[in-house]
Amino acid sequence: MEISLCMIAKNEEDVIARCISSIKDIVDEIIIVDTGSTDNTIEIAKNLGASVYEFEWIDDFSKARNYSFSKATKDYILWLDADDILNPDDIDKFRELKSNVNNLVDSVTMNYVLTVGPKGEFISSLRRNRLVKRERNFKWIGQVHEYLEVYGNIINSDINVIHKKEKAYTNRNLRIYEESIAQGKELSTRDKYYYANELCDNGRYDEAIEQYIKFINTNEGWVEDIKGACSKIADCYSYKKDSENELRYLFKSFEYDVPRADFCCRLGHKFFGENKLDIAIYWYNQAINAAPKEGNLSLINHDTYTFTPWVQLCVCHDRKGDMKLAIECNEMAAKYKPDSPAVKHNREYFKTKIQ
């Protein structure tokens, strides 16, 4: 297998060398499509062996990414963003994959790690179709929050791509959506969901709720996005101090699938805050008993399956007067995060209480 690395970039001089340096030994060509850099991005990329093509930015990520794919010449295409990296352990896994993968494979998914803890532990991640067969001519779709439409023989790898975002959040995506709407363009079902996300992230909660509900009512969305919409609506109502509707939409997510651990933890937190300890304990236990779906492309908050419910169960059982069980729960939490300040604090607290 020979691999083309394809990236789009603009004003990424602070991170692009880090990205390319982490992956350059595993790829056979590097394609950078620059969408209007005014810094040293192009020079840095060229010095690291990249072929750089300029592309006029037209507020459309898919068109830029498809242009980058059109310049690839190798068997497979790997896509990254400039603020992504691969750690040495994952480069070793990638090298093994490159040597052994069957050429009938159309796509290889990899974990996309969005948040990393202080000890390097994964906090949140999702799967992406990351390495695709060039001759299949897969296309990117969507002006914003674009996705690669992939089908065929897809395999899941345990390779991790780490996202190390450095730039501050902006309203760029919201502006693109609203300009499209102003021009009379109809948003796709998927874009309705992401438009609502942008509204929520910009603090426009009432508008966001309206758009999320419109998205859900299409009955055409991906089930993971529908569950995400329920979660975000609950967030919006939480910001608005409307606990009744917050709870309503947390439970509404159960209409579409079995309870996910993050929803269970949120319910646990809510009932804990109301001092309804038995109900809180029930939901934290449900979180522990849940399990992420293998190969699912949805966002996974890893702590909500392990550390978070255990450390919260510790507090719940202590409040109920069962110190023995509380200590056991704290030690279970310690298995996942032994250096956690919460775990250490609880140990000292119980030590003092016993004395």
UniProtKB/TrEMBL annotation:
Superkingdom field: Bacteria
InterPro entries cross-referenced by the UniProt entry: Glyco_trans_2-like, Nucleotide-diphossugar_trans, TPR-like_helical_dom_sf, TPR_rpt
Species per Swiss-Prot/TrEMBL record: Romboutsia weinsteinii
Keywords noted in UniProt: Transferase
GO molecular function, one term: transferase activity
Protein name: Glycosyltransferase family 2 protein
Keyword Disulfide bond (UniProt): no
UniProt keyword Transferase present: yes
One Pfam family recorded for the sequence: Glycos_transf_2
Record Gene3D superfamilies: Spore Coat Polysaccharide Biosynthesis Protein SpsA, Chain A, Tetratricopeptide repeat domain
Residue ranges of domain Glycosyltransferase 2-like in the record: 4-97
SUPFAM superfamilies cross-referenced by the UniProt entry: Nucleotide-diphospho-sugar transferases, TPR-like
